[in-house]
């Protein structure tokens, strides 16, 4: 039996890194009955907006994922199957896992993204802000006095 679902996701609470869904989630595939075991094999795709990990600019990412699951009305001990009741199988959790598993670990708006200034927060891709971003390790603060030429040791 062919399976085809198109749904626009609006609730982002289950997707912590996603800023928004730019396209509906599309799922297409088949559901087969093999001796009271229902085998679902579908491919899903959508387009999401994620924040750049360096500058927080929105980045559009196309997501593709596969769902391959086995279902039965009664859990069989000899096979790994998911159980369901009634005449419908809720795919929401499987779609969520597929999308989360397909999200990239790191998202950059471009390879040479400069990020944000740690002092004033300006987007450094738009130009330098002039802030002093020299960071000193606080563990070596007491040693800094040894190299300070203005102080007498």
Account of the 3D structure:
The protein has helices spanning 92-102, 141-147, and strands spanning 2-7, 18-21, 25-34, 37-51, 58-72, 82-83. With 153 residues, it is mostly beta strands. Strands 1, 2, 3, 4, 5 and 6 form a six-stranded mixed beta sheet that branches. It starts with a strand and ends in a 6-residue tail after the last helix.
Could you give a short description of this structure?
The protein is built from 2 helices and 6 strands; from the N terminus they run E-E-E-E-E-E-H-H. It has 153 residues and is mostly beta strands.
Notable traits:
single chain; 12% helix; 2 helices; 153 residues; mainly beta; six-stranded mixed sheet
Topology:
Blueprint: E1 2-7, E2 18-21, E3 25-34, E4 37-51, E5 58-72, E6 82-83, H1 92-102, H2 141-147
Parallel strand pairs: 5-6
Antiparallel strand pairs: 1-3, 2-4, 3-4, 4-5
Characterize the biggest β-sheet: 6 strands, mixed
- Helical region count? 2
Q: What gap, in angstroms, lies between the N and C termini?
A: 84 Å
**Topology, number of strands:** 6
Question: Can you give the mean pLDDT?
Answer: 86
Helix fraction bin: 10-25%
**How would you classify the helix and strand content by structural class?**
mainly beta
Radius of gyration: 25 Å
H-E string: EEEEEEHH
Q: How much of the sequence is in beta strands?
A: 25-35%
- The coarse overall form would be elongated
